[in-house]
Design goal:
It comes from Sulfurisphaera ohwakuensis. This is YkgJ family cysteine cluster protein. It is a single chain. Helix 1 packs across helix 2 and helix 3 runs parallel beside helix 10. The radius of gyration is 17 Å and the shape is globular. It starts with a helix and ends with a helix. Strand 2 and strand 3 form a beta hairpin. The protein has one domain. It has 195 residues and is mostly helical. The strands form two sheets. A three-stranded antiparallel beta sheet has the order 1-3-2. The longest helix has 21 residues. It is built from ten helices and five strands.
């Protein structure tokens, strides 16, 4: 599998495609490296945030700060293709091109109050916030050895904190049942029994 295929598989998983998530877990499980294990947990947490929990009221309460603060958002070529197919030429002018790469500035021009006007087809990097982004998880990634990562969630991200609370309940239940830390797949299976 090449990098583009992995990115697309991940983006589809982040959108809630469980078959893509399972295929991604299959791929990452082949590597016996802490970074692969970290990736499995981070993507799982993000999939839960994006697709399983009703978090809109928390995003509204926060005001969508993740879309207002921080570095420009990378727009991968597959994101650009999707945006180009769905946005007007005028709207596409909101993307900036630097050294052959597109970015989306922050505050995001596609944010309307706290809502995302392009939510259904927003860039991969946006779908990854906060659990599967290097910006937020760099320190956690660098110190990760094994077990369930203690993900960093910005103070303003109430929704992310709710995901951690939900996943902590899943983890604690499975630790009692299994006598060890659950794998990402075991956590996914437990979550799927609830929905």
């Amino acid at each position: 599998m090449n990098a583009d295929q992995i990115h697309m598989l991940t983006k589809n998983a982040l959108r809630g495609d469980i078959k893509s998530l399972e295929a991604l877990l299959d791929f990452l499980e082949k590597f016996n490296a802490p970074i692969s294990k970290f990736a499995m947990y981070s993507i799982l947490y993000q999939v839960i945030m994006n697709n399983f929990l009703d978090l809109g009221k928390y995003c509204e309460e926060c005001g969508g700060k993740c879309c207002k603060l921080g570095l420009p958002v990378p727009v991968y070529h597959f994101d650009y293709k999707e945006l180009k197919a769905r946005l007007s030429k005028e709207e596409l002018k909101n993307l900036r091109k630097h050294n052959g790469f597109y970015t989306l500035s922050r505050p995001c021009p596609f944010q309307d109050s706290w809502k995302c006007k392009i939510h259904e087809f927003k860039p991969y990097a946006c779908m990854s916030y906060p659990f599967a982004t290097e910006d937020e998880q760099k320190d956690v990634m660098e110190s990760y050895k094994d077990g369930i990562p203690d993900f960093k969630v910005p103070d303003f991200c109430i929704a992310g904190k709710k995901v951690k609370e939900f996943m902590d309940e899943i983890v604690n239940k499975l630790r009692v049942k299994l006598g060890r830390d659950p794998t990402p797949r075991e956590m996914l299976n437990e979550v799927l029994t609830k929905f």
